[in-house]
Amino acid sequence: MLEKALKGSQKYWSLLAALAVLSGIGFACFMLQLSQGLKITGMSRDVSWGFYIAQFTFLVGVAASAVMVVLPYYLHHVKDFGRITIMGEFLAVSAVTMCLLFIVVDLGQPMRLLNVLLHPTPNSILFWDMIVLNGYLFLNIVIGWTVLSAERKEVPPPKWVKPLIYISIPWAVSIHTVTAFLYAGLPGRHFWLTAIMAARFLASAFASGPSLLILLCYLLKKRTNFDPGDGAIKKLSQIVTYAMITSVFFLLLEVFTAFYSQIPGHMHGFVYQFVGYEGHGELVPFMWLSVLLSATALVLLVPPKFRNNEKLLKVACVAVFFGLWLEKGVGLVVTGFIPNVFDKVTPYVPTVPELGITIGVWATGFLILTILYKVAVGVKEEIGA
Amino acid sequence: MYDSGKIIPGIILFVGLFTFPLWSNLGKAAPAPKPELPKTEKVCVMDAAFMKTEHMVLLNDWRDKVVREANRVWVGPDGKEYQMSLQNSCMQCHASKTKFCDQCHNYAGVKPYCWECHLEPKENM
Amino acid sequence: MEKDRREFLKIGGISVLGLSALPVFEALAQGQGPKAMPDPRALQAGQWAMVVDMKKCWEEQEKRQCKDCMDACHKIHNVPTIPDPKREIKWIWLEEYKHAFPDQANEYAPEHVKESPFLLLCNHCSNPPCVQVCPTKATFKRAEDGVVLMDFHRCIGCRYCMAGCPYGARSFNWGDPREYLDPQQINQAFPTRRKGVVEKCNFCAERLAEGLPPACVEACKAKALVYGDITDPESEVRKILAGQYTLRRKIALGTGPNVYYII
């Protein structure tokens, strides 16, 4: 099936070339980081995780969101999702790949990565995260590829893949739960120390992932003969709506607990994010932009009249995706370190090489996604679906 | 043959690159390593044959014993005691990294990362 | 036949797994062969702890801006002096009252408490979060004496321990630390670190092993630092703790810090 990725239009190849160039730039920056150390990033003693881990966290959500098409399709036989389930699974494959790459580029000693397997440590959440992420990657590659091959031959998928599909449903939930546990179990990091972290992560994931999937579906519809079907988009947009409402609701719960209890440690993170703390307000414009985007998204999503309008839905999806990206992929990780354990503020701003590596990883992910989607669309065209 | 203009130069280029390590080192036979041994002792820790082939395994074993198990003394098969320490035992007699360690390591093309942290003896001291 | 084959496969499997370590096992198996043991001089404890008498420390600081403990520690352990505070490596350092005790800083505390710096180091917690989160056991709590240690050979540099430590006791080598060490001043008896690993105070495990007190304790002329076994009711630290009220940092978090402060 992979041969489908080798035949394409000029535009397809240009896209691949552009993504390859970006990931090449990222790789060059990574080589610089390997030789110089992580001092080429903006991270510090006080803000010891930065943009890499934040992107990782956000993308685990995008990966987990595949369950939002897999679950209705396989458990509730929602026929509308028949054509896009594979798109959700392949999106998960590329998102998990990006997650793993972001972990690797964040390590101080990446060549010692396998120590995690050589010295397995079940009391470390990072150990479990490695297991669930790799497992999820494996599941989605196997399931996606097998189901697509069967579809190409116009036969039902082999029986052995069914149990894997059922396993992949709770597994998707597990990847984001475990990722939330990375943060939610640390004493002394008040901003993260919240029992609804995993629930928040899942809610925001089920909004951001499907909104990206909607945008990708529209793109495929415009550029290829692939038609996701109006029903699929409509159902996805409903999922995005409910998940977005839940996500915003959960965030407001956090705000309530912090400010009604008046416990300083719990308030400081939000204070830093939205008005600035001790003269530092690096995140303030981004966090307000996130609020603005989320509010816009809700206004456009909640009334069915707006949501069912293709143009407005696209705007809403962009707003959801970037709004949540700002919240999780920019704000959440860094704010855990601000103020630091000494109640001091060390600001964090990513450097150019750090952004280069970040863009490189995103480009690699989208390169993989483009190839996988090309294969999927090729198969769908071949069988005339 | 179709595209022979591309295929033949391609094959030549591939063979050239593939054999690069062979022809780039042609006629440059490296001299056999001559590690300089301490004059005072003949046998240290374990017999020379063992040390030659297994010193890296022994050092890894020492590392875990010292760092993780709080055992710092090694009793050799001959009953002699040694402090398990690369810097403070081994390198006290094998006092030159260049004349001892590097001799074989360079010959074998290995770069152990010991020296990223462990300090080699200051030569000419 | 069947059994022989199984035996063969078993041995084969073990050989493949432990091929490189086999000669050492063989050597160890030779009866009176080599063995490892602690240094007979090594100091023993159930859980090492430290009491810092800030009154004595401040007196000495006022007299001559004393930094003896920090200098001794950082010199012995080849801790680099990195000017950029974002990249600093700290094993033992000074921090203001409100930053050292952000959860219990009293606004109307005596001026000398509010304004004088406290001496901070790793608390060698009884329940250390850094050990709990480490994915490779590169940081571990030594069963023998409760010291929280780093195995620099094993650290992958994920910095999860830095997020986990509520005391800011951990430093990461953002670059090569040797660039900031004077080759003339370097301690030839202790290693440096390399870029990409985390490090922290090791309660002078290498000195305890030789029967020596921690370097900071030894260097303090004011006798402001006292170390001892917190599990031994007869130890000096326990006597001090029984005699006067002491503070520990962030006890509400349940990490069980083992550094006590007299103010």
UniProtKB/TrEMBL annotation, chain A:
It is a multi-pass membrane protein. Keywords: Cell membrane, Membrane, Transmembrane, Transmembrane helix. InterPro entries: DsrP-like, NrfD-like. The keyword Transmembrane helix applies. PROSITE patterns: PROKAR_LIPOPROTEIN. Its main location: membrane. The keyword Protein transport does not apply. It is found in: Cell membrane. One of its GO terms (cellular component) is plasma membrane. The chain crosses the membrane at residues 12-34, 49-74, 86-105, 125-148, 160-185, 191-219, 239-263, 283-303, 315-339, 359-379. Belongs to the NrfD family. PANTHER family: POLYSULPHIDE REDUCTASE NRFD, PTHR43044. This is Putative sulfite reductase-associated electron transfer protein DsrP. The lineage of its organism: Bacteria, Pseudomonadati, Thermodesulfobacteriota, Syntrophobacteria, Syntrophobacterales.
Automatic annotation (TrEMBL), chain B:
It comes from the Bacteria. This is Putative sulfite reductase-associated electron transfer protein DsrJ. It comes from Desulfacinum infernum DSM 9756.
UniProtKB/TrEMBL annotation, chain C:
Residues 146-175 form the 4Fe-4S ferredoxin-type domain. Keywords: 4Fe-4S, Iron, Iron-sulfur, Metal-binding. This is Putative sulfite reductase-associated electron transfer protein DsrO. InterPro entries: 4Fe4S_Fe-S-bd, 4Fe4S_Fe_S_CS, DsrO-like, ET_IronSulfur_Cluster-Binding, TAT_signal. It comes from Desulfacinum infernum DSM 9756. Pfam families: Fer4_11. It comes from the Bacteria. One of its GO terms (molecular function) is 4 iron, 4 sulfur cluster binding.
